[in-house]
Amino acid sequence: MIKERLVDALAPLLPLAKEEINSLLEFPPNDELGDLALPCFVLAKKLKQSPGQIAAALADTIVHPLFRAEAAGPYLNFKLNRSAFGAELLERTQSATFWRPNIGEGKRVVIDMSSPNIAKPFGIGHLRSTMIGNAIYRMLSEVGYDTVNVNHLGDWGTQFGKMIVAYLKWGDASAIRASDNPTKDYLALYVKFHEEAKRHPELEDEAREWFRKLETGDSLATELWRDMIGESLNQFNKLYERLGVTFDHVLGESFYNDKMEPVIQKLRSQGLLEESDGALVVRLDEFGMPPCLLVKSNGTSIYATRDLATAIYRRDVMGASQLLYVVGGEQSLHFEQVFRVLGKMDDTWEERCKHVPFGLMRMEGQKMSTRKGKVLFLEDVLNEAVAQARRIIEEKNPALRDKEAAAEAIGIGAVVFGDLKNTRTLDVDFSLADVLNFEGETGPYLQYTYARMASIQRKAAAGMAELQNDGDETESGGDQPAASTTPLSPDSLPANGPLTGSRSHLAEHDHVWPLLKQISFYPARLALAAERHEPSVLARYLLELAQSFNRFYHHVKVLDGSDSEQSFKLGLVLAASKALGQGLALLGVRTLEEL
Ligand code: ARG
């Protein structure tokens, strides 16, 4: 918002487009240099003057109620009228358009996310697709896109042939039915298949044959397949519920079984299909890529065939103008191939599809492989996180109401935020101790900060201003120990004494201004995170916001001073809690009113 106002003021004066001015303006590293700065180097060439002359001339020309301009060598520095800006900001935060900038303009985006493989455990890798996808889905909706998310379940393919073989040879139907987590039993069968197949390679042929039967509608194959799907889905749904994730559509790969033939026909009629060792492929030599295999020599489809049919369905039936695929980076080649084949069929596909990749997640240093059975079940990770959260709460705040719900929210919030705060393409080393640390850059730190904001607002509402002493002791709740004795508290900075001065000077205060500034960044950061499909941009913003808030909280008495001062400070707390609360909700992290 600060930048936008300045860009508007500068645009009529400069030979540059608004976007260019926007990207030139910088926030100087320290406030002494002004609140914003415009380096004048690029203007020098256009205006045929030195940057210094330009800065000086502009400084003389600009008259604005919110800014004062000063030249400093080649830079034009802007000093904000912080009080006017603060008043305007609080006013703007009253309106819904501040919180939900409309950049999507109703464009329909279909987001492929989560998409675990049936009859395999829901591992930590699919957590990333689920939570990164969920955040992207919610952020895009928030900024005005018409979003549709789809769980593209891995419920088709040769692995079901393998599962059927293993089940018929070694499976125990009644044990599986009685098991409290049948996906673990199915995993054991899958692992056994791969062990046995090393010694008896003919098992692989049997598996291919069973998948062919499944694809051509064999009744036994279909029945066994349906059982596996049902058990896995029950298991997955429990996880989705705990994570607070919902889907507009759950359409597995099997849904496209009758939609692949027309695609193959079209490719054939366009002359794009070639035979290669009995299989059918589309060549991609011109892109320096290996050919995309679409029909195997025994006539069965593969993953890529199903993805072609899926993309076409999403465009033609679901009306997608953009297709996003939130899938691990190890599938980059697959998506490039699929997108190239689509592009060869019809050039309107260009720009429409986007793979949104993410890195590997290592749990305390390990990488997992399903085939060898070395799997970390997401369910077990969540349970462990919740158990640890429960212990922390029990130790630090045994008087808290509804500790069980709090432990669930904290434990899961810690895991989710611990994932989302990382730039998505990077590999993540995940450690429960780190993500649960209330004093680190964590979900629990933000949840705690949010609860603190809520507590101040409750106190204000209850008109308890007169009970307030120094800092933490009363504002963080009478039922809570003081900050100096509770390690749950994120910061323990000393209180700075009462803030004096009129409301108009409040915005100038060293610990008020940074908070004001952070709140004003909310819409731009949200928009950036949404457009880049990068939840970490929002996650890191929330950390900065919480840090400014906690500094403000330790140095400034909110429930103190004249009525107008108090209402200004409360307005700030309300806006900060809205930004933090909404931001966390968009990331899929639950907030608590008390902690
Ligand atoms: N089921 C796949 C896997 O776990 C991910 C599917 C991603 N989506 C897609 N349209 N290919 O590897």
From TrEMBL:
Q: Name one GO molecular function term.
A: arginine-tRNA ligase activity
What is the phylogenetic placement of the source species in the record?
Bacteria, Bacillati, Bacillota, Bacilli, Bacillales
Primary localization: cytoplasm
Residue intervals of the Arginyl tRNA synthetase N-terminal domain:
2-80
Cellular component GO terms held in the UniProt record:
cytoplasm
Spell out the reaction equation it catalyses.
Answer: tRNA(Arg) + L-arginine + ATP = L-arginyl-tRNA(Arg) + AMP + diphosphate
Q: Which residues form the DALR anticodon binding domain?
A: 446-595
> In its keyword annotation, does this UniProt entry include rRNA-binding?
no
Known partners and oligomeric status: Monomer.
The name on file for this protein is: Arginine--tRNA ligase
Q: List the InterPro entries hit by this protein, alphabetically.
A: Arg-tRNA-ligase, Arg-tRNA-synth_N, Arg-tRNA-synth_N_sf, ArgRS_core, DALR_anticod-bd, Rossmann-like_a/b/a_fold, tRNAsynth_Ia_anticodon-bd
Q: Which residues form a coiled coil?
A: none
Where can this protein be found? Cytoplasm
Main EC class of this protein?
A: ligase
Show where the record puts the motif 'HIGH' region: 116-126
Q: Where is this region: Disordered?
A: 464-501
Keyword Ligase in record: yes
| Keyword terms | Aminoacyl-tRNA synthetase, ATP-binding, Cytoplasm, Ligase, Nucleotide-binding, Protein biosynthesis
Biological process according to GO: arginyl-tRNA aminoacylation
- Name the family the entry cites: Belongs to the class-I aminoacyl-tRNA synthetase family.
Q: What EC identifiers does the entry list?
A: 6.1.1.19
Xref: SUPFAM superfamilies: Anticodon-binding domain of a subclass of class I aminoacyl-tRNA synthetases, Arginyl-tRNA synthetase (ArgRS), N-terminal 'additional' domain, Nucleotidylyl transferase
